[in-house]
Amino acid sequence: MEGNVESPSTKLSLEISKEAKISQNQHGLRTNNFNRYREYTTRRAKRIRKALKFTHQKKPKESFQKKTIDPSIVTDERFLLLVLVKSESSWAYAMELKGESDNSRTKIHMHKKMSRAVKYSSLLVDLCKAKADERTTLEAQAYASWMAGHFMQQREDWKGSLSQFQTSKMIYEQLSKVVDNETSAICKEKVEEITTSIEISEYRLKGAGFTPTNDSNSEEIQSKLSIVADAMKKQTDNSKGVTWKGKLIPIKNEKILSALLTAQETSFELDKALDLDAKIPLYDKLFDSYNAIQDVIRDQSKKSNNNNEDSTKGRKKYSKSDSLDLPVELKSYIQYVRLERTIQRNLLLAENLEKQISEETNTGRKRTKPEDLIRIFETLIQNYTELNELSTEEEETKKNVVNVLSFKAFRCYYLALSYSTIGEWAKARVLLERSLEQVKQAVAHLQACKQPDASKQQKLDKYEQQIKARKAEGHARHYLTQLSSLSDQTPKQTTSSDKTLQESMNTFDYSMGQSKKIVSFPPDLEAIACKPTLFDLAGLSIEIPIADITKRSTTQSKSWFGFFSK
To answer: Which of 115, 155, 409, 502 has the lowest CB atom count within 10 Å?
Structure first.
């Protein structure tokens, strides 16, 4: 153990997320074979104990003496790895039992193993706080919160599991911004997994009548993340280069390195900013850094060309020391990153303007003009076209084509709105038709992607509904405009114009688009015949021939059919 002793100022470091992910992928968890992974972690824990000479028995025949790990004896990263492997072993055993029969004894056994995994993960956090650096401590906290959240979820403690998962998600999200590309991909994958667990816990809490809240304490975590970010910046400074598309681009020019560090610091501040007013000045500062880098590259390229011309003419002997040694990929990298940040800023501005236009439409105010959005969409179309020229991956090219078609459709839509405000309904109708066609093309290209963006699909569907509604309104407005123009050209007919809609339902009138009365009110008075009121005085002076009536009735009754003739 004496050879492993380190100075007290030295901090231990262990890439917990990467170590766990590689072990899981290589030993069974690609196919959810938890039994194989548990056996592997058990064997690995024994090998680590033997390497550290930290076994429970000094000799094979001696009695068992349990050895616990505390911060005082941790002098090697392998002690941290041992605790991580033990936690993984208990978790794998619990997951194996979860897939077996669902009886009470198996469930109790599974809970015991999960409880042991949580115990080891908590021990890992304590050891990292005492002996490890800030990055390792953050990864241990995220891992322990994730493990505790799963244990509480199995115990149906939805409130506790939600709090643990929120803490773990926040740490992984922030870590993905400051670590290397490989670890960042692992962190993002972990965030997607935790998001599903958070949705389950929130659903259960809402069903029980509780309101989900975010109780994660972020002050301590943010302070550690700032330290990790500073360490990563120093590492970037020492590496003298940037990594792009899996390739390291070496940089030897001090001006470019200084500008890149300034841009990186601004990017960290930009990720922490929340509102648009705080982000816009940071974007301007970031673009100033990228412009400075491009100016340096341009100036040094000119110097290099001049030196080459002088050397060919014999004016100056050109040597390798005069070489500016700028990689060709550096210029493409700066252009690519600058375009990405430009697109992010323009999308924020477009989203803000769209929100203002929708609010003004609902309230009736008209302060934001559609022309402002049209200019931003034209800039975005140009940005994505340039980005498409720099991209080399097929999937990225497809997504860029989708974005170009989408923003062309949005541009036509708001251009139609600008024409509708001045009464040019025919032009607005044609532009809406074009916008609808481009939306359908964008949806078709989006479905052709391997992983279609759900938010992009929702936005295109929303615009399609708005375009159809505006199209119907524009068609009606254009028809009414034509009717009014025809009514102005034709001579006015007083008889038809004075009629109400009820009276002229079966006749066509050019002025029907104008406001007219439905019925005449109050109704017109009409002359009608009055009912006479008389007394029956004439009946007294009328003589009725009763004798003739009696004689006629007796004559008819004497015949054979007299009875039927009555």
So the answer is: 502
Dig out the tokens for 410 from the structure.
Answer: 């949005």
> By CB neighbour count within 10 A (0-12 exposed, 13-18 middle, 19+ buried), where does 123 fall?
buried
In this structure, the chain runs to a length of 566
**Distance (Å, whole) CA 458 – CA 436:** 15
Q: Coil, strand or helix: which one is 354?
A: helix
In Å, how far from its chain's centre is CA 384? 19
CA neighbours within 13 Å on the CB side: how many for 366? 6
Exposure b/e, 256-294, CB count within 10 A at least 16 = b: bbebbebbbbbbbebeeeeeeeebeebbeebbebbebbb
- Residue type for 347, please? L
Residue showing tokens 């610091």: 265
The per-residue pLDDT for range 207-242, each reduced to its tens digit, is 776 665 655 556 666 676 777 666 665 555 544 567
Question: How many other CB atoms are there within 10 angstroms of residue 148's CB atom?
Answer: 23
CA-atom Rg of the chain in angstroms:
42
Q: How far apart are CA 93 and CA 90, in angstroms?
A: 5
* Tokens 């390798």, located at residue: 320
Looking at this protein, which amino acid is placed at residue 163? S
Q: Omega of the bond prior to 522 within 30 degrees of 0, cis?
A: yes
First to last CA, the chain: 142
Q: Which residues contact 432 (CB under 8 A, 6 or more apart)?
A: 412, 413, 416, 467, 470, 471, 474
Tokens, residue 22: 């590689």
Predicted confidence (pLDDT) per residue in 409-427, tens digit: 888 888 888 888 887 888 8
Where is pLDDT greater, at 397 or 481? 397
